[in-house]
Amino acid sequence: QELRPKSLDIKQEELGDMVEKEMASTSEAIEDAVRRIEEMMSQARNESSGVKLEVNERILNSCTDLMKAIRLLVLTSTNLQKEIVESGRGAATTQEFYAKNSRWTEGLISASKAVGWGATQLVESADRVVLHTGKYEELIVCSHEIAASTAQLVAASKVKAEKSSRNLIRLQECSRNVNEMAANVVASTKSGQEQIEEKDTMDFSGMSLIKLKKEEMETQVKVLELEKRLEGERVRLGELRKQHYALAGSYDTAEDGETKPSPAPRRGILKKPPLAQKP
């Protein structure tokens, strides 16, 4: 609801001002996101080390690259919009052009808001991941959201742009770069998650004696449960083999009553003595 432009509450002459305000607001949000990521990087270096520091740095670096790509995208989009307005407004003012093309203008405002909102959400998710209070999946979802809102902004800008426009070509290149950087965030997040989870399962260095004893007892319980389950499965396998041998023996008896020798099971695989031949 927040991303939807409230066109009914806005006079048409104000639409032009809103476009400029939203694009400026989006640029400001991205600049703020870059600063926050730099602060997180500094904090991570002070408060973490080893594998966790390596993972945090890799994720934050990929987020920084994505923010830089978005910043260039917004700048190029702003230049393209100015070009569209200048070439299409004729003798009309900028505000009149935006008012005349109000539906396109509203789409542009909505797309710009979506890009800025996605960037803010990405930074907040990255902050929680670095502080170990958030989920890696949040970063992945935010990256997909940014790619989608970028496509929305390009589509909105492309509607009224000349096909031969250099700014349009640059904008499409920026869009591809944003998608690539978003994919890098997803890849670094997934690999970092695997590294952290693998380390956490076997890292006992920070545990107290009581905590170690408790973990040891819980692990013993799991081992006993697994051993019981394994024994049950072995019994089940034995019963399955008995039934298999019984059916195989019945099948080996010919219809005319002549008994055929049942093939002996191979040693080392079935580990069961062959059943006695039926009379």
UniProtKB/TrEMBL annotation:
GO terms for biological process: actin filament organization; clathrin coat assembly; endocytosis. GO terms for molecular function: actin filament binding; clathrin adaptor activity; clathrin light chain binding; phosphatidylinositol-3,4-bisphosphate binding; phosphatidylinositol-3,5-bisphosphate binding. Keywords: Coiled coil, Cytoplasm. Residues 207-243 form a coiled coil. Residues 7-248 form the I/LWEQ domain. Residues 249-279 are annotated as: Disordered. This is HIP1R protein. It comes from Galbula dea. The gene is Hip1r.
